[in-house]
Amino acid sequence: MVIKTVSRAVEHIPQILEKSLPYNLCEELFRVGAQGRIEEIRIRRDRRASVVLSGRNVMLDYKAQQGEISEILTRMCKGSLYAYSDTINQGYISLPEGIRVGVGGRATCEGERIIGVYDVSSLCIRIPHRQKQVGGEVCELLHRFNSTKGILIYSPPGVGKTTLLRGCVSILAGGDRPMRTVVIDTRGELGFSLEGENLCLDVLSGYPRRLGIEIATRSMNAQLIVCDEIGDYEDAMTLVSSHNCGVPLIASAHASTLSELLCRTGIRLLHEAGIFGAYVGITRAPYMDFKYDVTMRCDAMPELF
C-alpha cells in the first residue's frame, strides 16, 4: 500500500487520516469532499469503499485488497495494535480530533467476552465537524427544572446526539453563571472542540462510564454530568447513585421512538427512579437545525420548542 501526502485533501479530511489512508483513496475523498461534508468513511475488504456525504451514502471506486485494511489500522495505531487492543476488542479505536473508527473482523471469545479481534475486514471512520453553537433550547429546559432533573436525548445513530451534547456543554459550562460540568468522554469523541479557557469544565477522557460518573460525583464536585450513549443496567445503577447525590445528568441514547427507548432495561430503571425530567427526541436534515420532540415527565406536556 502506497501512502503519499495529498495536501489538498486536508480541507476535507483530518491530517491524521490523510497520513493513514492510501493515496488513491485520499484522491477520491478530495473529489467527493468538494461536493459536501464527509461525515463517515467506510472501508471494506474486497468491496468498494463508501462515504456518508451530507447525510447520503456515496460509493467510491477504491476497493481494499487483502492486507490493506490491517495496514491502515496499524498506521492509525502508530504501529502498535497492542496499545489499542482493549478498545479494538470493544469494536473501535479513538483517534485525535474526536475521530472514532469502528473495527470489524473475526472475534475470539471467552464466553460472552471478546478477547481478541483478527482478520480485520472493515473500518468505519466517523469524522466530527465544528458547527455553530447548538443546544440552547435543551439548556433552557434544564434551567426550568432548576437542575433537579436531567435530560435524555435520543435518536437513531448518525442524527447528531454527540454534536448536540457538545453544544449543551459549551453553553452550560460558560457564560456569566457557569455550572461545574464534568464530561465523561469514554470513547474520546465527546470532548472534541470543547475549547475555551473560560469554560468551567473537566473532561474525563477514556474513563469507563461507570467509574467516570463516580469520580465526577464524589471527587470532582460536579454540578452537571454529561455523557454519551448510556443504556445498560450497570450504567443505570451508577447514575441512580449520582442522582441521589443531587447531580443532574444530560445524556444520550440510541432509539428511534420514546417507546423503544423505554423498553430498554437500563433506561426503564432510570425512568422509574425519576432521573430525567424530559426525553428529547431529535431529527435533522443535513445542514439544518435540530427539530425536537419533547416528552415531559409531568402530566402536562406543553410544546416547548
Describe this structure in words.
The chain is of the alpha/beta class and 305 residues long. The protein folds into two domains: 7-126, Beta-Lactamase (2-Layer Sandwich); 136-296, Rossmann fold. The protein has ten helices and 13 strands. The strands form two sheets. A seven-stranded mixed beta sheet has the order 9-8-10-11-7-12-13, with helices on both faces. It is globular. Mean pLDDT is 85; it is low at 1-10 and 299-305.
Structure described in brief:
This protein has helices spanning 15-20, 23-33, 68-76, 85-88, 136-144, 161-172, 209-218, 233-244, 258-262, 265-272; strands at 38-44, 47-53, 56-63, 92-95, 99-110, 113-126, 150-155, 181-185, 201-205, 224-227, 249-254, 276-283, 291-296.
CATH first level of the largest domain: which class?
Alpha Beta
Tell me the quaternary state. single chain
CATH homologous superfamily assignment of the largest domain:
P-loop containing nucleotide triphosphate hydrolases
Strand order of the largest sheet: 9-8-10-11-7-12-13
Determine the number of helices (DSSP H or I, runs of at least 4 residues): 10
- From the coordinates shown, what is the CATH architecture of the largest domain? 3-Layer(aba) Sandwich
Measured as a percent range, the helix fraction is 25-40%
Distance N to C terminus: 51 Å
Class derived from helix and strand content: alpha/beta
Task: Give the key terms.
305 residues; alpha/beta; Beta-Lactamase; Rossmann fold; 2 domains; seven-stranded mixed β-sheet; six-stranded antiparallel β-sheet; disordered N terminus
